[in-house]
Amino acid sequence: MKKILITGKDSYIGTNFKKYLEQYPDDYYVEELDVRNESWKEFDFSQFDVVYHVAGIAHMKEIKENEQLYYTVNRDLALYIANKAKKQGVHQFIFMSSMSVYGLIYSKEKITQNTACQPNTYYGKSKYEAEQLLNDLNDSEFKVCIVRPPMVYGEDSPGNLTKLLKAVRKFHIFPTINNQRSSITIGKLCQEIRNYIDKGINGIYLPQDDEYMCTVNIVKKKMQNEQVKVIYISIFNPVIRFMIGKNKLITKCFGDLKYEE
Predict the structure, then answer these.
(1) Of 3.40.50.720, 1.20.120.1460, 3.80.30.20, 3.30.2130.30, which CATH number belongs to 2-153+183-205?
(2) 176-185 b/e with 16+ CB inside 10 Å = b?
(3) What residues does each domain of the chain span?
């Protein structure tokens, strides 16, 4: 039986992963640890095989006043926990990083393992700096596994897709632009993390769904399921295409951004 400690109690990803593994009670023991205060420093990590670190700051408006908070939580806390895990005999440390380390909100080229990381937000920079520090801890006895998922979505997920769907429900209108973006359902992400744990591997991984997301198709499917009437129009498509790369919100909604298959 694999014993897994999720550092980051009540997080969307961590909680869903714990629920996912409950269907395999003979194979995994899972515990969540709250790391928002100092009490985690007294916790005994030695009973666990794997630490899955999901704690972090995300979906917060970036202003100068909270810059240090990103580095304190996303970088420094991850390193402190990893060092403790290594010293207490944990064999694998899985770090939840992000596609944001590439510094791209759209690209005509697919992202690969060889694409340069050039983060340009506090979130992306703090995650990338954490990756570099954690990699220094990797060795034959302590496997550091870094996961860079694209947008994670699912029921009650936080983030941009949920905000977009809320806007569609309010205005009942949406453009028909076809785009391709890498994304991953929370269920698929849980499967991939389980696979990394079963194999006990290290390295950098770019998990995604089997098919790229088209924003308008996701909106149509969701609104049909909810029986919400929406008018889909193409009249604004030329203007929206022109604004891709110039306006951040439009680019995130309708620009292409994808990992290689």
Answers:
(1) 3.40.50.720
(2) ebebebbbbb
(3) 2-153+183-205, 160-179+213-254
Query: In the predicted model, what is the mean pLDDT of residues 126-131?
Result: 98
| Tens-place pLDDT, residues 147-187 | 999 999 988 788 788 888 999 999 999 999 999 999 999 99
In tens, the pLDDT along 20-64 reads 999 999 999 999 999 999 999 999 999 999 999 999 988 778 888
Q: How far apart are CA 220 and CA 5, in angstroms?
A: 38
| pLDDT tens-digit map of 5-31 | 999 999 999 999 999 999 999 999 999
Instruction: Say if pTM beats, i.e. exceeds, 0.85.
Output: yes
- Residues 6+ positions from 59 with CB-CB distance below 8 Å: 158, 159
β-pairing verdict for 2-7 and 28-33 = parallel
**73 pLDDT more than 80:** yes
Q: Cα 160–213–151 angle (5° rounding)?
A: 40
| Residue 55 in tokens | 């704690």
Q: Provide the token pair at 22.
A: 């409950």
- Helices marked H in the chain — which ranges? 12-21, 67-70, 78-87, 122-135, 160-171, 186-199, 215-226, 237-243, 248-254
